[in-house]
Amino acid sequence: MKKFNLYLILIALAFFAGEIVQAEAIPLPSLQLGMEDIDDPGKVSSALQILFLLTILTLAPSILIMTTSFARIIIVLSFLRQAMGTQQTPPTQILIGLGLFLTLFVMGPTWSEINQNALQPYLNEEISQMDALKLAEAPIKNFMLKQTREKDLSLFVNMAEGQSTSDAEVEIQSLIPAFIISELKTAFQIGFLIYIPFLILDMVVASILLSMGMMMLPPVLISLPFKLMLFVMVDGWYLTVGSLVRSFGG
Questions:
Q1: 178-203: buried (b, 16+ CB within 10 Å) or exposed (e) per residue?
Q2: What pTM was estimated for this model as a whole?
Q3: Degrees, nearest 5: CA angle 197-81-181
Q4: What is the pLDDT of residues 140-169, one digit of tens each?
Q5: Of 135, 123, 173, which Cα lies nearest the Cα of 153?
């Protein structure tokens, strides 16, 4: 009798649970991917354009790093942190955020020109997509050409066959790697200049500790507070950021 009552209770619970699940069921949208025959070539062109734009979005971080001022800025800020010997202070997220906002500031005129000459006419359906891309490419090329050394640019132009050496006719695929190695060289030069005062301070502290016979005491442990004091007294962030931004003026 007890088993029969238990079975009835289980059946009732299962029935009510099914009613609750059925009542709370939420319809979900279905996503279908497939291929079908299309007679209109315009639809194929639109699909290919969407695929191209999605591919560009996946490459957006690389484009942001390799065709803007971000690479030089973040490398110099990393050199500054290593020179001070503060390990992970400021944190990497802070340096990247500062680098992004400085990049927005430096690239502001270039992106404004792209928006005015290429993006807005394209959104207003005044020009085609290919024309918009060509118009958007010109300001980026002008910015990179100003920051690229002639020696680095001629290296890739000479390796590419059939390219002109004039700035207006340089292909973007030759300009981008030349711009990158020029940015790396400039960033390392600035990083070397940043290292010099901190290196001198380390050598002075190490010499004083050696003369006092404190050979077992790490010089970095003593020099770190003096580095921070020196950096704050000369307003180091003001000088570093100001020099970085002005380095893109040429």
A1: bbbbbbeebbeebbeebbeebeebbe
A2: 0.71
A3: 90
A4: 888 888 888 888 888 888 877 655 556 566
A5: 173
